[in-house]
Design goal:
The protein has a two-stranded parallel sheet. About 40% of the residues lie in helices and about 5% in strands. The protein has helices at about 15-25, 40-50, 55-65, 85-100, and strands at about 1-5, 30-35. With about 130 residues, the chain is mainly α. The longest helix is centred in the C-terminal third of the chain and has 18 residues, at about 85-100. Helix 1 (about 15-25) links the parallel strand 1 and strand 2 (about 30-35). The two termini are about 40 Å apart.
């Protein structure tokens, strides 16, 4: 999972992240767009202004554009993916990176036979 993607701050790192994941055996990838709920928004604003003062307002504006003018969005289907032109560009970059580095890979199938629901194991079976 490539998350959270922060438009204008780490969105340009998507290709390198997907490539690194592929080089380490990943067979699929996903991403989420940052959303700043409640007090997290104030903490993030303080952090971005201190660490990236030259682009802090631009990044905050991109996040707001992704979430309907707010720093967070609670709408189902939009809260983790966002919307707008910047998000469409991020989505295209992500899809191209996945196609380049992960195409042709098949998902590993899991062997679930070793797992039991809680309560299925009898105490004496442990010895």
């Amino acid at each position: 999972m490539t998350a959270p993607i922060i438009p204008g701050l780490n969105s340009d790192e998507i290709p390198a992240l997907i490539e690194a994941a592929a080089n380490h055996g990943a067979d699929c990838a996903g991403y989420t767009i940052v959303r700043l709920n409640g007090a997290i928004a104030d903490i993030f604003k303080d952090w971005i202004h201190k660490n990236f003062p030259d682009r802090a307002e631009k990044v905050l504006h991109h996040i707001q554009d992704a979430h309907g003018g707010q720093l967070s969005d609670s709408r189902y289907g939009k809260r983790m993916s966002g919307e707008g032109n910047m998000i469409r560009s991020i989505n295209q970059l992500f899809k191209m990176s996945v196609k380049k580095h992960l195409s042709g890979r098949t998902r590993m199938e899991y062997d679930l036979t070793a797992f039991r629901r809680p309560g299925e194991v009898q105490q004496l079976e442990l010895f």
